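=== RUN LOG ===
request id: a7f3
mode: sequence -> structure
chains: 1
length: 411
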Amino acid sequence: MIGRSSAAAALAAVAILLAPAIARAEFPTLQQVIERARTRGPASLVAAADVRVAGSTRYAAGLPPMTNPYLEVFVDRGKNTSGFATVQANLWLPVELSGVRGKRIAEVDAMVQWKQIARSSAQANAVGEAVTAYGELMVAAARKRHAADGEKVAREEAAYVLGRFQAKDATEVDRAQAEGEVARWLQMKSEAELSFALSKARLAIATGDPSLEDPPAVVSTDLPALKSKDGEALAKYLLENSPAVKQHALEADYFDKSKDKWEADKYPPVNFIITAGRGDAGDVRFGGGLSWTFPVLRRNQSEIARADADADRAKGNLEIAKASVLARAKGFFLAYDVARKAVSTIDSIAIPAAQAVVDASVAAWKAGKVEQSRVFLARRDLATARDRRLDIIAVGWRAYGDLAGLVGEMP
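=== RESULT ===
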C-alpha cells in the first residue's frame, strides 16, 4: 500500500509540474490554421447552421400524400320536426394525387445540396482569409524582429559614440545623431508591434481562436510552394474544383426543382368524403363523395414565375463566377510568381550588397575615414531593402491566400 501511494503521489507531482506546459497551446502551423478556419471560422459556422436548417425541412417534405383530415358536423331541426333532430357528419380526407410529394422531396434535396456546397464555399473563403492573415502575421513578426535588431545595434553604436564623446574623440553632434538613430528605431519598433497586434487579431478572428498564442521569436516568411508551376494548369484545376462555381450551379438546380414543385402544387388535393348521419325520423344514413378545386384562376402563377426568374439569375451568376474564378486564378498566380522571383533577386543581390555597404561604412567610420552619417545612411538603405522585401512577401502571401480561398485548401 505504501509503494502504491508513493507512486501515485509521484505521478500526481509530475502531472502538476507538466500541467502548464500541457495546457499552453502552441502557435499553429499553416495546415492547422487552414483546418481551424474550415471548422471554426465565423463564416464556416454560420454556413454549417444553414445546412442544418435546410435539412430540417425534410421532415415535412417526406410526409405521406394524405394531408390533415377534418370533420364537419351539422345538427338542425325544422318547424315540422317532431322527433329526432337531423344530424350529419362529413369526414374529409384530402389526398395529393398530383405527385407533389415527390417534387417536394426533390426540392428539399436540391436545397440541402445547394447549402452544403455553399458551406464549402464559405469554408473556402474562410481558409483564404486565414491564410492571408497567417502570412501577414509572419511578415509582422519579421518586421518586429528586424526593428528589435536595429534598435539593439543602434544602442550599441550610441554607447560607442558616447564613450568616444566622453574621451573627447567625438562631437556633440555625433552623440545627438547616435541617440536620434536609437529613437528612430524605437519608433519603427512601435509601428511593427502595432502591425503585429492587428495581424494577430485578424488571424484569431479567422480561426475562431481568441486565445491564439504568439508565433515563435524566429519565424519563416518563405512563401509556400504551389502544387503546379504551370499557371494555366493551376487555373483549370481551381476552376474545376471551385465551390463558388458549383454553388451557383446547384442554386439554379434548386430553383428548377422549386418550379417543378409549384407546377405540381397548383393541382389541389382530392377530397374523399365520408358522410354519416341521422334523419329527423331517426333513420341512420351513410354515404360518400368527392370534391376537387378546379385550378382555373389561381395556379401558383407568382411562385412559378419567381422560381423561374431565380433560376435564370443563378445561371447568369454561374457564368459570371466561372469568368471571375478563372481571372482571379490567373491574376493571383502571376502576382505570386512575380513576388517569388522578386524575393529571390532581393535575397541574392540587393540584401548582400546593402549589407556589404553597411560593413564597409562601419569599418571606415571606426577608422576615422568617413562621417558617422554615412553609417546611418547605409543602415537605413539596408533597412529599406529588408522592408521592401517584406512588402513583396506580404503581397505574395495575399496572392497565395486568394488562391487558397478559391478551393479551400493549399493551391
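=== NOTES ===
The beta strands are 70-76, 86-95, 270-278, 284-291.
The first strand starts at residue 70 and ends at 76.
=== END ===
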